[in-house]
């Protein structure tokens, strides 16, 4: 079963700053579940001038009780991120997906960052289009390595009800995750503007996140981020 | 700056990350660089990282995933 969710929003910052914040976004006060980030590949295409980056994030799973009973062993998950920066055309494309539970639940988030046509603020804006492809593969017949073993957890439940539970939780978590990652980006962008890159790096090393969070609490405007379901 | 998956690699990662972010913001974004200036630091960091991924037993999973990505370099180049 495959579902798509779409979302559009804008940052009140210029495109170069937003792309820099994207690569610097961890750690931030909203990313306490992100344990590590490593770069696996960094390639500059000599023909197009595009920059291709592949990174691996390790995230701590905070599973709700309703799902933890089905998947007792998920504590951490690996996220693969691939991004392409096209500096000539000012376009950043990103794709993140979960790795280890791909056979049971696959979530692929694709984003496109471009300068906004609407230039109402002095500094310009950057639009972000997000599409999340959400697939639970239970009972779909597509079995990848290791999945048989993992599916053993589900043997006492009817596939349909488990699948629905996982999908519901997955959708809710995805919405929460999108909101959190946006808030995290805003914190990094604000700090980049106020302190510059060196200041951000210093602060990230010191881990002064609580102070940032306090300063931001209640200040950001709430945007309508409910995803639209495409059938 | 974020931590590495293996604390052993954190120092090398930090040196590379610092180089990369500086190059990215001061040169690449301004269209002033056609070469990756952090290659040597990246190589050192990768030696450590690849060892860590192997010892955690996730190197094969990652390689496989990178091959099948709909957005991978082979599909995207050009």
From TrEMBL, chain A:
Q: What protein name is recorded for this chain?
A: MSF1-domain-containing protein
Taxonomic lineage: Eukaryota, Fungi, Dikarya, Ascomycota, Pezizomycotina
Q: Which residues form the PRELI/MSF1 domain?
A: 2-197
**Gene Ontology cellular component?**
mitochondrial intermembrane space
Q: Please, which domain of life does this record's source organism belong to?
A: Eukaryota
**Cross-referenced InterPro entries:** PRELI/MSF1_dom, Slowmo/Ups
TrEMBL record, chain B:
Cellular component terms (Gene Ontology): cytosol; mitochondrial intermembrane space; nucleus
Show the InterPro entries listed in the entry.
MDM35_apoptosis (IPR007918)
The GO molecular function terms of this record are: phosphatidic acid transfer activity
> What keyword terms does UniProt attach to this protein?
Disulfide bond
Q: Which GO terms describe its biological process?
A: phospholipid translocation
State the family it belongs to.
Belongs to the TRIAP1/MDM35 family.
Task: State the protein's name.
Answer: Putative mitochondrial distribution and morphology protein
């Amino acid at each position: 079963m495959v579902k798509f969710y779409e979302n559009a929003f804008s940052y009140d910052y210029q495109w170069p700053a937003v792309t820099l914040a994207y690569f610097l976004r961890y750690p931030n006060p909203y990313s306490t579940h992100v344990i590590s980030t490593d770069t696996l590949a960094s390639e500059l295409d000599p023909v197009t001038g595009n920059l291709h980056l592949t990174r691996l994030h390790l995230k701590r799973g905070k599973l709700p009780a309703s799902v933890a009973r089905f998947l007792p062993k998920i504590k951490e998950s690996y996220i693969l991120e691939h991004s392409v920066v096209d500096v000539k055309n000012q376009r950043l494309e990103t794709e993140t997906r979960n790795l280890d539970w791909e056979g049971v639940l696959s979530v692929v988030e694709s984003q496109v960052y471009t300068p906004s046509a609407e230039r109402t603020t002095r500094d310009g804006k950057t639009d972000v289009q997000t599409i999340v492809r959400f697939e639970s593969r239970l009972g779909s017949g597509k079995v990848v390595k290791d999945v048989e073993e993992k599916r053993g957890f589900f043997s006492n439940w009817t596939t349909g009800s488990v699948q629905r539970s996982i999908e519901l939780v997955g959708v809710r978590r995805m919405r929460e995750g999108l909101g959190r990652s946006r808030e995290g980006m805003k914190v990094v962008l604000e700090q980049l503007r106020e302190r510059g890159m060196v200041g951000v790096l210093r602060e990230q090393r010191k881990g002064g996140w609580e102070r940032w969070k306090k300063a931001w609490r209640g200040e950001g405007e709430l945007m309508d981020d409910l995803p639209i379901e495409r059938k | 700056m974020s931590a590495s998956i293996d604390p052993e690699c954190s120092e090398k990662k930090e040196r590379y990350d610092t180089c990369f972010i500086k190059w990215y913001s001061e040169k690449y974004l301004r269209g002033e660089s056609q070469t990756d200036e952090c290659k040597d630091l990246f190589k050192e960091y990768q030696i450590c990282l690849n060892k860590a991924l192997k010892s955690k037993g996730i190197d094969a999973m990652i390689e496989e995933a990178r091959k099948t990505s709909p957005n991978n370099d082979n599909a995207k180049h050009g």
